[in-house]
């Protein structure tokens, strides 16, 4: 459930629709249908997964092409109220703060957020150095996230930058490997996006073979 909460903080939303439909909703969306199925299983929930066909969307007068994606809309006022107590709110992206996560569950929360709004990339022009990046509209959230990670790994360094309408928390090279190792150290007991995990494994295997 810590994974699911992290994913909601990144790629989810809550809606208060009591005036029109007498309930509230949790929305989850991703391009990978399998991760949505895993989260539904974790929540013991049975809801229809809606397919959204490829389309063009406009953000700040710019058009972006979006490939096929999937979403779930869960109408449940109790889930909504629980998430509000944890710090979520409608239109959360610019104002979220890091919730209070017990230490033993933080790695799963971090993985959920990473799968929703994070990426792993390899810089081809810098000796294949790897980066782990978390993105958010809330600078405070990323600052709190970096403080939490720094408490676990005091020697790990990071940077926060702003561009294209969002803040990015970046860990480079050895720092990235420490964070990625923490995210994936217990791969069994929580969901994970397969393609991101496989990209991490491919990088590790390539580095071993190059030595």
What does this structure look like?
The protein is of the alpha+beta class and 211 residues long. It folds into two domains: 2-85, Roll (Endonuclease I-creI), CATH 3.10.28.10; 103-210, Endonuclease I-creI (Roll). Helices cover 39% and strands 28% of the residues. The chain contains seven helices and ten strands. It has helices at 2-11, 33-42, 77-85, 106-117, 139-152, 173-183, 194-210, and strands at residues 12-17, 23-30, 50-52, 55-59, 62-66, 69-75, 118-123, 129-136, 159-163, 166-172. The strands form three sheets. The chain has a four-stranded antiparallel β-sheet with strand order 1-2-6-3. A four-stranded antiparallel β-sheet has the order 7-8-10-9. The chain has a two-stranded antiparallel sheet with strand order 4-5. Helix 1 (2-11) packs parallel to helix 4. The longest helix has 17 residues, at 194-210. The radius of gyration is 18 Å and the shape is globular. The protein starts with a helix and ends with a helix. The model has no long low-confidence stretch (mean pLDDT 90).
């Amino acid at each position: 459930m810590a994974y699911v909460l992290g994913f909601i903080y990144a790629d989810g939303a809550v809606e208060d629709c009591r005036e029109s439909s007498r309930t509230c909703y949790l929305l989850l969306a991703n391009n990978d249908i399998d991760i949505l199925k895993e989260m539904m299983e974790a929540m013991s929930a049975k809801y229809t997964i809606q397919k959204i066909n490829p389309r063009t969307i406009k953000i700040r007068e710019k058009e972006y092409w979006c490939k096929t994606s999937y979403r779930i809309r869960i109408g449940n006022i109790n889930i909504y109220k629980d998430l509000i107590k944890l710090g979520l709110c409608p239109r959360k992206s610019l104002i979220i703060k890091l919730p209070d996560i017990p230490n033993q569950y933080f790695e799963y929360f971090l993985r959920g957020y990473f799968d929703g709004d994070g990426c792993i990339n390899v810089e081809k022009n810098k000796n294949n150095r790897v980066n782990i990046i978390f993105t958010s509209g809330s600078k405070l959230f990323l600052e709190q996230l970096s403080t939490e990670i720094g408490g676990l790994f005091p020697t790990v360094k990071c940077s926060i930058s702003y561009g294209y309408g969002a803040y990015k928390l970046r860990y480079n090279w050895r720092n990235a490997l420490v964070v990625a190792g923490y995210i994936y150290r217990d791969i069994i007991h929580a969901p994970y996006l397969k393609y991101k995990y496989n990209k991490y494994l491919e990088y590790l295997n390539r580095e071993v073979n190059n030595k």
